[in-house]
Amino acid sequence: MDKLIGEFINQLEEAIIISDIAKIDFHTKKINKVFIAGMGGSGIAGRFTEEIMKLYGIVPVLISNGYDIPSWIDSQTLAIVSSYSGNTEETLSSFEKLIEKGCKVIVISSGGKLYAEALKLQLDVIKLPDNWPAPRACFGYSFIAQLYVLHKLELLKIEISKELSASIDLLLSEQDQIKSEAQSIALRLVDKIPVLYSGNSLSPLAIRFKQQLNENSKTLAFANTIPEMNHNELVGWSKKYEDLAVVIFRSQLYDDRINKRIELSKEIMIKYVDTMIEIESKGLRLLQQMLYLVNLVDWISWYIASYNGIDAMEIENINILKSELDKI
């Protein structure tokens, strides 16, 4: 897994090339909304895309992590169906229903049933490399491909090449620091259950970190946003929790009221937890901060696994579940 994480910058560069040359039909239908179907690493990429679209998009976006699709899907809907393997059960179910609805469907995949069916139906496809052993390590491919689809269809008003170039430059300049910080944070999180908090714009990052802790580090983790946690979860901090560690993602892009809420929330939580870590994002714009933090938290999850002598690639429980589902 460390080798895969170490390839993140190269993956972004390759994803840009793949997505840039992909043929996407600009004129088949008028689009007034976007639906993204995906699970796991492909699904979380959709969450990041949603936040970018909130800033720079011209149509609303909904992400689905399941079998079903909304009732409002119609011919003016762009549906991005994303599955790295192309065999994700839930995504294939959504795909079939989307085809029946007659919306514009674009597929992002490395192969499998989804890719084969997309070719059969002559759909627009962004074909991803098929030589990566862990789909969760392919976040860069899925995220960049989704952004380029929306950019090519003129639904995303952002200088995507310029933004991604700045993001890659940031990652290149910060690699040593990223790994050093990741090691330091991982040491503080060993044998802890992380509770992750962020502002809304970085909520996909907190979820990504939770997922990587689950799969790479083999540990539970929980994620929530500020201000939402101020209206419910904050009350739960009412006694000492020896095994919990709070991790807060900070950004200079947050609203001043969010920063004030973070400070006040810290004052309450620090009474009940021994470990509180603040991670400051780097980068001038949201996309830069997202990619910087994805690389950082991926490294943290791997270092925790390494310190605990855990195989970060192993996903036995998921394989057991899939095996049992195949029998039904």
**Any idea of the CATH topology of the largest domain?**
Rossmann fold
How many structural domains can be distinguished in the coordinates? 2
CATH class of the largest domain: Alpha Beta
CATH architecture title of the largest domain: 3-Layer(aba) Sandwich
Q: What best-fitting shape do the alpha-carbon axes yield?
A: globular
What does this protein structure show overall?
The protein is an alpha/beta fold. It has two domains: 2-158, Rossmann fold (3-Layer(aba) Sandwich); 174-307, Rossmann fold (3-Layer(aba) Sandwich), CATH 3.40.50.10490. It is 49% helix and 15% strand. The chain has eleven helices and nine strands. It has helices at 2-6, 8-21, 40-56, 89-101, 112-120, 139-152, 160-189, 203-215, 256-269, 286-307, 316-326; strands spanning 33-37, 61-64, 77-83, 104-109, 124-127, 193-198, 222-225, 244-250, 275-280. The strands form two sheets. Strands 2-1-3-4-5 form a five-stranded parallel sheet, sandwiched between helices. A four-stranded parallel sheet has the order 7-6-8-9, sandwiched between helices. β4, α5 and β5 form a beta-alpha-beta unit. α7 (160-189) runs parallel beside α10 (286-307). The longest helix is centred in the middle third of the chain and has 30 residues, at 160-189.
